[in-house]
Amino acid sequence: MVRGRAAEIRLEAISAAKRLHREMKIRNTVTSGSGMIDVFGAIEQLEIPLVFKPLKTALGLCLPKPLSGIMVTTERGLYIQRFTAAHELGHAVLGHSGSVDREFNYRAMLEPASGQDFQELAADAFAAEFMLPRWLYKHHVQQQGWTVQRHLQNPDIVYQLSLRMGASYEATCWGLLSHDILNRTDVELLLKTKVAQIKQSTGETFRPANSWANTWRISAKDHGATLTVDPDDLIKIDLEEAAGSGYQWNLDKLRGAGFEVISDRNQIARDPVLYGGGVRRTLITRPPEAPMVNIDLSESQPWQAAPDNDRQLRVSLIMSGKESGGLSRIARINRGAVEK
Ligand SMILES: [Zn+2]
Predict the structure, then answer these.
(1) CATH architecture designation of domain 206-319
(2) Can you tell me the distance from the alpha carbon of 294 to that of 248, in angstroms, rounded to the nearest whole number?
(3) Which residues in the chain are classed under CATH 2.60.40.2020?
(4) 43: CA distance to ligand 1 center in Å?
(5) 318: part of which helix (H) or strand (E)?
(6) Beta-carbon neighbour count of residue 89 at 10 Å?
């Protein structure tokens, strides 16, 4: 009985999230834009008051109508703030009574037990669907040319997927199960790998500036994309060098934009399944402090004045760390309080 009722509640919450996606035309905006769902922007658009405060014992809370409002802690990273806000939005949209939330239980959402708080289950299911819908997985998987069998069982790849969707690694793994993209055994295996380990292997000997910052791995597959990164993140750029042809990637514009190149080396691709064969030039960089910045690289023959067959890698970065207090960044922009 508990399972039947829980499944029903979960489906209702998922439908509510899908309805909101449709009404707000979110799919098109996201797939042609930043690749992640703007949770704070949606709350702002729905005119639900949202503030960030240094809550110590809760991730977030939601006040019921007629007061109606959402508060999210400043004590956690952006991806947890986003999921928390989506969870509280779920309480608001589903017309729940008020709630104070200390943790989220992704597992309980898919494996309800007796004694489960149905209101929390519904808000979690809403948040997961709102932030991590199946079409968003599909969008990124297609963009990167990943396949379920060869790539999505690899923790490094799922971590890169999570960054592009603006969600935690854990939430991203559970989404793979809830959308039936991977089976339970594969997801349990992914969850055994700790994010700290993945960051460590991706960044090699380099570390992001703080423990919640991330290490991105950007390649030709990201050409033309807009990514939202934290100013403290490390950006690793994989470039295929046309070895022996005299073509070289030119880093002048990258350095000119203020990127600090902390490592630059060539290597033979060790894992052709994941990253293609041939010679790979790998840069590890720290982005500059700026609200927006572009990665702009082109490969050319240095002695040619006007090369016409340059290969290019252009990626726009929106530098957006966690919310640090008061109104959300998007709300402040809308009110003209900060520059874009
Ligand atoms: Zn809740």
Answers:
(1) Sandwich (2.60)
(2) 19
(3) 206-319
(4) 16
(5) strand 311-319
(6) 27
**Ligand 1 center to residue 93 CA distance, Å?**
12
Per-residue pLDDT of the chain (340 residues; tens, 9 = 90+): 567 888 899 999 999 999 999 999 999 999 999 999 999 999 999 999 999 999 999 999 999 877 789 999 999 999 999 999 999 999 999 999 888 999 888 887 777 777 788 999 999 999 999 999 999 999 999 999 999 988 999 999 999 999 999 999 999 999 999 999 999 999 999 999 999 889 888 878 887 777 778 999 999 999 999 999 999 999 999 998 766 667 788 899 999 999 999 999 887 655 555 554 567 889 999 999 888 999 999 987 766 655 556 688 999 999 988 999 999 998 998 888 765 5
Residue 81 alpha carbon to ligand 1 centre in Å: 13
Specify the CATH number for 2-131; select among 1.10.10, 1.10.150, 3.30.420, 3.40.50. Answer: 1.10.10
Amino acid at 287: P
Answer whether 318's CB lies under 8 Å from 228's CB: yes
